[in-house]
Amino acid sequence: RAKLSTTQHYWFFNQKLQDELVHEHQMVERLQQALRLGELQLFYQPQVSAVSGRVEQVEALLRWFPREGGVVSPAEFIPVAERSQLIERIGDWVIEEACRQRAEWKAEGLSDYRIDINLSGRQVAHPELFTRLEAALERHGLEPEDIGIELTENVLIKANTGLLDNLRRLYHRGMKIAIDDFGTGYSSLSYLKLFPVTSLKVDRSFVHDAPDQPSDRAIMAAAVFIGHQLGLEVVAEGVENEEQLELVRDLGCDLVQGYYCFKPMAAEDTRRLLGALVLDGDGLTN
Ligand code: C2E
Ligand code: MG
Ligand code: MG
Ligand code: MG
């Protein structure tokens, strides 16, 4: 009996693994098709000055709108793409699309708003990242200040010399480099001295719990302190209500990003918003 249940167990896990592999394979094929059919879009979420309430820049967030309808979150398909070669093609598409959009908005007089893009580990470690970004900027007549990049702490842990080289070259060209989801990875603070970065984005889990949890407040205060000591800008992610906004402001965060200020929006809605801000000569004050 014992033996039988063991084999059943084995079969069960095997079957599950196989189902997952099939699902993953189908997802990769659907994503390849999505690229061909133009089903990917960039949405944009503004980052607002914690002090003045002005919109300073926007983060580009990938969305997949399959023909069948609905929308697939990047949290679902980016990890799959990262396990295949596909992330490089998707990443190149994101770079190209963000540059194209930035150039279009600049031509319309919306020159102040940098677009920050998220880069995956594979992309940042790729020996050609620097050259590809440079080429994309040049193709669209952009400056290095027009586009920023975000990478997570976990990407830094797996850093090779290629990654460090890319970051150094981008930094020296004047590109903004943010550490995303700061505080949730397994990196140590010494990474801040090793890697050239310009801002820290404190993960939204701390922002979410800060009003009720002294430990989350303490971690946020420490992140702001060390960030400022190192001359970095500190961004609070995922601000969802007034209480969190006031708290991150009091803690000294420079910028806020979250549903309470703006949700990620389609390009056209973003353009309307930025256009209205330029006419007003000021940002939104909540
Ligand atoms: P992220 O870079 O940390 O982006 C912030 C995420 O938080 C976004 O989720 C955004 O929609 C969400 N968010 C913003 N404000 C709030 C809020 O107030 N409350 C809550 N609960 N969430 C908020 P999204 O768009 O689903 O993206 C998830 C992740 O997927 C991103 O996290 C990023 O790591 C990755 N991603 C998105 N676009 C790209 C891309 O173009 N390339 C790569 N490699 N990764 C991407
Ligand atoms: Mg990000
Ligand atoms: Mg983040
Ligand atoms: Mg995140």
From TrEMBL:
Keyword Transmembrane included in the entry's annotation: yes
The entry's keywords: Membrane, Transmembrane, Transmembrane helix
Keyword Ribonucleoprotein on entry: no
Lineage: superkingdom: Bacteria
EAL domain location: 24-278
The protein's name in its UniProt record: GGDEF domain-containing protein
Species, as recorded: Bisbaumannia pacifica
Portion held of the full protein: 362 to 647 of 647
